[in-house]
């Protein structure tokens, strides 16, 4: 499994950096690169999601094994107390009963590591101590194994998250160049991400060109808060049909923290809003006589951003 996961980390493109002397790529080349990066990002995102599942499984296994080991340790402690008098008697008689040594020891594993002790217990296979010893050892091995798996998956997830960021940055840079040459390309390029915010943004992008109608919330006409409400409803998130209420429907983020799908608000009274796309652009339903379109966020006083998913 580890080999397969590591192999999946090698999909980061080697063409992210471009030498200064290289000629500028054509629009067609940039578009091809953008789609390729978006596809790679989707692969990395799914691998990341898979690792999150594996990490949760490993952490649950580690907790179960740890709880089991703790129960065995408590049982051993109870047995230590019961044989305290036996240990004293053995000492008085100058004996060295391995059973007493094992149970009374604060480091029973050190006692078990002695070959003579193991042979002794093997001969007394009906001993409760032998059963306890085996259970405790199994619990400790399971705990260590589960903890090792959790650590391994965490490390792989960190590596994968770093590579996702590299591909995302490369995609944003490529998309930015394309949009500078042809602003209409923004509507034709993939919306990256697999979360509900990205999914809602895809629904909103599918409404480009639909007319603005005051008080409308889809499916074919919209006002500004009606568009965002309709888009998020498609992914199972219910928002109120009012900019002021949507402004308080999630976590507030700064302009520099905006991600695709975040809600963006303008003017002090929050009377206009849209959905962030990236690169300083948003999709919105502007006003009567206009249609759902992509526009720059500049030119309007930014009041805040809200992340609802």
TrEMBL record:
Report which residue ranges the record marks as coiled coil. 27-82, 136-173
Q: Which residues form the NlpC/P60 domain?
A: 194-309
Pfam families, A to Z: NLPC_P60
Do the record's keywords include Protease? yes
Q: What are the alphabetically sorted keywords of the record?
A: Coiled coil, Hydrolase, Protease, Thiol protease
- Name the InterPro entries on file: NLP_P60_dom, Papain-like_cys_pep_sf, PG_Endopeptidase_C40
**Top-level taxon of the source organism:** Bacteria
Kindly list the residue ranges recorded as spanning the membrane: none
For this protein, the record's PANTHER family field holds:
NLP_P60 DOMAIN-CONTAINING PROTEIN-RELATED, PEPTIDOGLYCAN DL-ENDOPEPTIDASE CWLO
Family stated for the protein in its record? Belongs to the peptidase C40 family.
What is this protein identified as? Answer: C40 family peptidase
Name its species. Actinomadura meridiana
